């Protein structure tokens, strides 16, 4: 059983004006309890010192194009209409290895910014493929 005690974290509770220091217990990847720092921690819990750090929930990116991360910055001056017209020939025809690499790059970038979930609007031209979807899923799995 996976048990982690995040010790000394600053946590902002709903209704509070300022963050308060507390110890956060995480069991099997789920938050189970907030403890005041004075309360003793349970034995056999792995500890992570988060002193001076603010603990927030993972962020969610509701609009992602994993297949197109390798194209970012290529056409910054384009308006939306130009991107929609030219997108298929630029980002739509990708082999599974390129889709994997592009998606993995975006996943690592999101994780480094605190994003733990996303809605990926995948695109392949002329139509989605099973291999493309599997490549994207593998990239997100490998990124963690």
- The end-to-end distance, rounded to whole angstroms, is 19 Å
> Tell me about the biggest sheet?
5 strands, mixed
Oligomeric state, counting identical vs distinct chains: single chain
Low-confidence stretches: none
Shape: elongated
Q: How many strand elements?
A: 7
Strand content: 25-35%
Order of helices and strands: EEEEEEHHEH
Helical content (DSSP H or I, runs of 4+): 25-40%
* Rg measurement, Å: 21 Å
Overall pLDDT level = 88
The class by helix and strand makeup works out as alpha/beta
Q: Count of helical segments?
A: 3
Question: What does this protein look like?
Answer:
By secondary structure, the chain is α/β, with parallel strands linked by helices. Helix content is 31%, strand content 28%. Helix 2 (96-112) packs parallel to helix 3. The radius of gyration is 21 Å and the shape is elongated. The chain starts with a strand and ends with a helix.
């Amino acid at each position: 059983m996976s048990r982690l005690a995040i010790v000394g974290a600053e946590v902002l509770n709903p209704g509070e004006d300022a963050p308060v220091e507390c110890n956060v217990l995480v069991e099997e990847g789920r938050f189970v309890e907030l403890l005041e720092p004075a309360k003793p921690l349970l034995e056999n819990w792995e500890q992570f010192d988060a002193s001076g750090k603010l603990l927030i929930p993972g962020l969610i990116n509701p609009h992602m194009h994993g297949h197109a991360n390798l194209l970012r910055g290529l056409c910054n001056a384009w308006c939306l209409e130009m991107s929609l017209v030219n997108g298929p020939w630029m980002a739509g025809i990708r082999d599974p290895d390129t889709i994997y690499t592009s998606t993995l790059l975006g996943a690592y970038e999101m994780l480094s910014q605190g994003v733990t979930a996303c809605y990926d609007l995948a695109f392949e031209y002329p139509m989605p493929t099973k291999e493309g979807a599997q490549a994207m899923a593998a990239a997100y799995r490998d990124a963690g």
